[in-house]
What does this fold into?
Amino acid sequence: MSKPPAERTEQLRADGSLRHLLTLDGLSRGMVESLLERAAHFSRPFNEPAARSTALRGTTVAIMFAEPSTRTRVSFELAALRLGADVVNIEVQLSSRRKGESVLDTVATLEAMHVDGLVLRDAEADVPDLVAAHVADHVSVFSGGAGSYSHPTQGLLDALTVLQHKGRVEGLRVAIVGDVRHSRVARSAWRAFSLLGAGEIRLLAPTALMPDTHDFAGCTRHDSLATGLTDCDVIMALRIQKERMTEADIPSEREYFAQWGLTIDRLKYARENAIVMHPQPMNRGVEIDSAVADGPQSVIRDQVRHGVAVRMAVLEQALVRQS
Ligand code: CP
It folds into this structure.
């Protein structure tokens, strides 16, 4: 289902520093830990003012999303602004791409306006890699989600959320529940949790939403919540991605909730102190019950809060000139 780009664009500079962030695949544990450490530095409790710096003063970041977004788009924008960058948002549906302009011509136009960083979301998995392969040397490209393949900053913010609530990822038992097959969030979370030494990563899904067997190496697969959630430390519920599946993939939403919905009763299979995550947007009453989403074990709002901190760390790491 997930079609990774035919040609992977190099994400690191010759000196090993991060230039682009297109995927977590191939990044070292040290690189991920250093990004998370910096993100933890930028993370603030809800009741404290947001972290700010002037590290990106004089830098321009353009955000161009061809799919809907609330969290990723807004948090990249806030992250860039809080680092002192200038930010422009390109509404793809209102841009000249609607008149047939290619994504590379649009990017060349932005480069001519002295854009230094480009944040892209696209339904096609290879668009961020394609753009990164063609931009000028001083420009960095950041994926804000590409097809069902990759959502690297989501993987990082999920890892940061687990670290802040559990103190470690090492050795933890993680359950990823629902529409794993179509989920770029699941693929990036799997990469991040594997890299950080999770003890076991379980995929829980009905057959139609389970990824192909060659995908998600090392994960165990479960066809019921009762077996799959038992003794888990972390539960990540996924959105049913209606836009990426055919009608035939699942029964009605009511039937799906009856079998796969995360409810208070089903949460009891997991460890008593298990945390519940969801990338949002949520289909309440389909993949998750409101009593769980808003309950004491939910860390969903922390995931959103950490999204800004992680994106500050990524933008800073790639865009601050080391001269
Ligand atoms: N989690 C996530 O990617 O949310 P948005 O689609 O709102 O950006």
